[in-house]
Amino acid sequence: MIDAPRIDALQYANWSRKVFEQMRAGGLDAVHVTIAYHESFREAVLNVEAWHRLFERHADLILHGRDVTDIDRARETGRTAILFGFQNPSPIEDDIGLLQVWHDLGLRVMQLTYNNQSLLASGCYEAEDTGLTRMGREVVAEMNRLGLLIDMSHSADRSTIEAAERSTRPIAITHANPATWHPARRNKSDAVIRAVTQAGGMLGFSLYPHHLKGGTACTLRDFCDMVARTAETYGVDRLGIGSDLCQDQPDSVVEWMRSGRWTKAVDYGEGSADAPGFPPQPGWFTDNRDVPGLAAGLRAVGFSAAETDAIMGGNWYRFFAEAFAPA
Amino acid sequence: MIDAPRIDALQYANWSRKVFEQMRAGGLDAVHVTIAYHESFREAVLNVEAWHRLFERHADLILHGRDVTDIDRARETGRTAILFGFQNPSPIEDDIGLLQVWHDLGLRVMQLTYNNQSLLASGCYEAEDTGLTRMGREVVAEMNRLGLLIDMSHSADRSTIEAAERSTRPIAITHANPATWHPARRNKSDAVIRAVTQAGGMLGFSLYPHHLKGGTACTLRDFCDMVARTAETYGVDRLGIGSDLCQDQPDSVVEWMRSGRWTKAVDYGEGSADAPGFPPQPGWFTDNRDVPGLAAGLRAVGFSAAETDAIMGGNWYRFFAEAFAPA
User: Which chain A residues are within 8 Å of B106, Cβ to Cβ?
Assistant: First the structure.
């Protein structure tokens, strides 16, 4: 018996009816999807248009989620609510007024940076982390006013901590793991997780192999043990899943994620010249049908049914209800 | 005692707190405002951003109206609901997917043409009227699906009649008068008004001097007599007001309306080289405070209180309720 919605706080699949059917098969009631990495305003609008067509064509499986009542409606009608997010602020360009425009178009989550320096803050791959910029501070305030969730998954430490401190609403790291478990560039230090969670924010555990100890070979047990230790440190109510699932994507997509238009060379990001593509997922989490197995893995390491429900979506639901509410 | 909302179905003022205060003084519960004439997609988004700032700064006077429940809310809180419309389809460019994007941004009314040929239909100043184009027919269907009202105020006759016939929802001429009263290029033939109203559509009477018999010298009595005759011909329930009030605008704005970027010469439209600017309004309708006087004028020519309420907004309210409802 599942008493809370099941929510994945980050996916970027090659969207298809098959993927949406697998969301249903896996019992997901809501998924936060990425609709832009490096896109301009107009390019990201084209992505919204593509989603409008998906919502029309697959209205029996998905709906556009604008607040948690849409997640309720999805559960009641056996569908999955799709929440829009940007991994990078490029679609607001240099225009703070576009935040409200994007909010009207259904955006609910935005990362202030994606690996690199943005107009707003520093990314986790920059040598220098200068914290929030002048525009970054204005954007934090405007996102707080509108009910747009600030996501710092790909940001640098100081920038993240400043955002957590400056934001009047709790912020999130939708998809990353503790660096104490696996010291990847994209995983988060204790200081960062503490700053975010102590301010009421959330950490979503990533299932992207580069964020896992042992990579593709990481076992479900290893992963769930890590979740258990993280819960002991920061509290079970601050934790969720943000799988970072990039199902069915060609490797050209991970090239776009990493290199966008900002370099003429190839940036391998978390990969390498020897392994430039998407890494293979662990066998126990290859698509959305594996969500129930993840829940079972949490139960197996000692989480109660209520704690498992909380981590598998109840916490995101409670958090989104406040994060998306108008000021 | 006013039993229906007071609605003006077309204004393009130089928006200011003064104008919004005058809307309140005149008792207007809703105004359909033009947010684009010749603007590209991005330029029209900038206009939306400017409106967002107006809604924030003047939240005690105005609110963004997305459906008739917002008009109810405006009445209950002593404010005016602002409904967005385009006079030209330029902000959808060549992309039908932008219609839903604009609907999400709060657009509720769009003219298929503005004087000239558009990608969708022929304007009333073209020598040839070829009716709806291929894209025009697709756009009519998509506007029907979304609940975007088709406005043919500046369109040519055949195009208007085809739109009325092809649209599955009633359409509107938000701002024009019968050509039988004053044969201006922008006023509408009996055949056009009949096609629109017999299909359940609406005609909004214009108070723009070029649309008035006698121009600026037209009297309130003359205008209201014309309304009475029009009601006898087409039925009182198909009529409303669309004042076309362009208050406080410099003459450079009427130049933009007429010439946009489509000509290097000056197009004088309804004006002339001798009188290229905005014509002076009749003394009895210079700003929104004159709305009650207009209602009194309708009573003076014999309309009952209920009929006056209907023409002054009740009809638009009933019509908008259906026009804006999702399919």
Answer: 104
pTM: 0.94
Report the alpha-carbon distance of residue B178 to residue A260 in Å, rounded. Answer: 57
User: Are the CB atoms for A276 and A251 separated by under 8 Å?
Assistant: yes
Point out the residue among A45, A98, A104 whose CB comes nearest to the CB of B106: A104
- B11-323: CATH number: 3.20.20.140
Listed in order, strand segments (DSSP E) in chain A are 7-11, 30-36, 62-64, 80-86, 107-111, 149-151, 172-173, 202-205, 239-241
Q: Test A49 with B106 for CB contact under 8 angstroms.
A: no
β strands within B1-106, DSSP E: 7-11, 30-36, 62-64, 80-86
| Partner residues linked to B178 by β-bridges | B188
| Chain B residue whose CA is closest to A64 | B104
- Helices B190-198, B157-166: crossing angle, 10 deg rounding: 10
Banded model confidence at residue A1, pLDDT cuts 50, 70, 90 = low
Segments making up each domain of chain A, as ranges: 7-323
Contact A42 B46 (CB under 8 A): no
Question: Which of B186, B120, B118, B198 lies closest to B157, judged by CA?
Answer: B186
How many other CB atoms are there within 10 angstroms of residue B251's CB atom?
A: 11
Calpha distance A190→A168 (Å, rounded): 22
Examine the pLDDT at A28 and tell me if it is beyond 90: yes
**Closest residue in B to A49 (Cα–Cα):** B97
**3-class state of residue A11 by DSSP:** strand
Q: What are the residues facing A82 on neighbouring strands?
A: A31, A64
Q: pLDDT-derived band of residue A250, with 50, 70 and 90 as boundaries? A: very high
Q: What angle do CA B128, B134, B137 make, to 5 degrees?
A: 100
pLDDT for B108-135, tens place per residue? 999 999 999 999 999 999 999 999 999 9
Q: Could you name the CATH architecture of A7-323?
A: Alpha-Beta Barrel (3.20)
Q: A100–B52: do the CB atoms touch at under 8 Å?
A: yes
Residues of B in contact with A100 (CB under 8 A): 49, 52
DSSP string, A61-118: TEEE-SSHHHHHHHHHTT-EEEEEEESSSGGGTT-TTHHHHHHHTTEEEEES-SSS--
Cβ contact, residue pair B49, A97, below 8 Å: yes
Q: B109 with B149: CB under 8 angstroms? A: yes
* Candidates B101, B107, B108, B148, partner chain A, best to mutate (most A CBs within 10 A): B101
